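Contributing new records

If you add data, match the layout below exactly. Sequence lines come first and carry their own label; structure lines follow with theirs. Keep one chain per record. Anything else will be rejected by the validation script.
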Amino acid sequence: MSLFKARDWWSTILGEKEEFDQGCLCVADVDNSGSGQDKVVVGSYMGYLRIFNPHPVKPGDEVQPEDLLLEVQLQEPILQVEVGKFVSGTEALHLAVLHCRKLCVYAVSGTQGNVEHGNQYQIKLMYEHNLQRTACNMTYGPFGGVKGRDLICIQSMDGMLMLFEQESYAFGRFLPGFLLPGPLAYSSRTDSFITVSSCQQVESYKYQVLAFATDADERQDTEQQKLSSGKRLAVDWVLNIGEQALDICIVSFNQGVSSVFVLGERNFFCLKDNGQIRFMKKLDYSPSCFIPYCSVQEGTINTLMANHNKMLNVYQDVTLKWATQLPHIPISVKVANFQDLKGVIVTLSDDGHLQCSYLGTDPSLFQAPKVDSREINYEEMNAEMKELQKIIREATKTQGILSYSIFLHSFIHLTLFLSLKKCKVAVQKPSLAVCVQAPLAVTCDQFVFDDLEPDSSETVVLSVFLKENCSPSELEGTCMVSYNISTGRIYRTAIYFVDSSEGDSANALGFQFLTGSKTTLLASKTSQRYRIQSDQFEDLWLVTKELIHRLEVHFKKENCKDFACTFSGSIPLQEYFELIDRHFELRLNGEKLQELLSERAVQFRAIERRLLTRFKDKTPAPLQHLDTLLEGTFREVIALADAAEENQANMFQAFAKLKSATHLVIMLISLWQKLSTDQVAILEATFLPLAEDTQELGWEETVDAAVSYLLRTCLSKSSKEQALTLSSQLSMPKDTSRLKKNITVFCDRLAKGGRLSLSTDSATQQASVMPGGCATIPESDLEERTIIPGSTAMFSSDGTCLQKQPEKSPEGLKL
């Protein structure tokens, strides 16, 4: 428990699901009791007006029913409440309530009660003003130096200051260069209004200048009428603070000296009457509200300032004197005097937490409750021990599938060592860049070191994690080191890292990816064949790649020169085409959402222009439900933007799955046709032309163009096909039927003896045909219709091609 926690003197929760703002709290002797005891006045956006008189029996007690003097629901939301001398003919305090389109002034009075329930309070409407413009906030004071009464100034949402001399409307003036309303305050010493404009400037306007300026109700836009009678509204002084202001407060605790306090988003300003900065403090937190409350030492002012960290700080000018913890984030803070306690801090949160507290250091004493001692039941412990021993014995007897229970975190920690060897000069400013392919990511991809001396080293620790919920197509990463030596040349070296942990040999091995899918590897006991099966087709790629890599490493160590991996059977194009269709469907959805979003954005801007025209009109006209249409269109734009963002994420995952499946298909084709390294490179360039997929240039049209080029060049049936020209412009196709047909024909022509080559010469083409093959690719019914082969295939590790009937199982490969 914090020693500097605000001591709760009285608190309550106002209503249910009500909202409050900065101007909804006021503290004053609103009922004119004459005792000097303040009352707490609170208004809400739900239209509820409440008046409290806190007097707890003990500090921290719950609110009593008699603490609530008055609660009434008005017809409109309450923007701001103020207490002042607002009725002519009397200097009694009255309550002013500001609504969106109305200003009401009430008299609060109480009658002596004859029973134990206490006095009865009621409000009486003295007068009201119907506003022609939507109000934002208000301020009050003795404008023009009047004595014994307060005038009211209301700022509208379109920048008009409307001044009321109690029961009558005086005049209205538009602020120059207005865009959005800011906080407004009145300085009685200089008789001026101070606000903060959208240009992030503190501006001061004299009351006399406002009174003699051109009337806002008669303002015209023509140049001739601009030069007619009436003066142009001129600003008294301007100060640029470089940020938006949250609140303005003007106080004068010493005779003849007043200060203008401005609370910004990150700074706190204290200004003189002429706009010069008296002092300024940079805040290391986000403030929410403030109030200057007294002057303890001559020439200084104490200020209470709350922030979004639930802290209340006490400053003497710029010096922090005290800090205390609050149970909520206040949006308004006041200082009140009650009968039992003077200088109570009253805070209000945006969800209706009203609290009266005081500062103190008496800690809340807490005693831990006694723990009930429980006797040990040895019979239950023995039974549990026997059950656990039984489970252990059954687990040790289990044979067959080798099961690994490995708990992997989403982060894989890697340690890289950078050492300088065989170099007699120092290396200047070496830098290390780490790159992995999406959806993998690293915690830090750039490292910069100090100069390395000969035979010295540096160690880097980083983590690789899965950024999206889909399996990666590559587990390899690249580390690039750049450094300078005295020759002035830049040297680079590449380091590759990949997980190559060894495991025990067994008949079967299961893998579970971070995405949740499972893959099983089965080894034949009688022949050198492996079977790989998985719930998802694309998840076969990583396991198949790692298996072939480890087989090659193993037989290379054994000096087995006749080792070869082969694959026989049909290419699993059915599942591959399903991934293509899914990816293409998401691209179509993205294009439709983009068109709908553009249409709704145009509609939204058109409604905004019409509303702006209505608001700028001198004679207010009905909105004709334009505000309702604007709100509905805005919701549609937000919903479409969220749908487009979700579709983009789904398309990213679909493309990652498509890349994994494409890698697998390329590997199977290379093993099936025993392609050389150059031919595999052509195959990869054909089916993996893009590192990232975009809406403008997608995978489907790019691969379709590349496959069509191969079918018309090295895999052409005759010279007529070689003479055909391809379109030089790529565009998004209507469907994937042409692409799937070209891929099927591509595989069929490879099966008929075609070989991949970048040369289109017929002699070169014939020389590239394997012995026993056909120089001319025969006609096939496969080119007239799309045939989807099965999903089961096998290859042998001893180089012999094996034939076996397909089995019904999840998507799998037999090796």
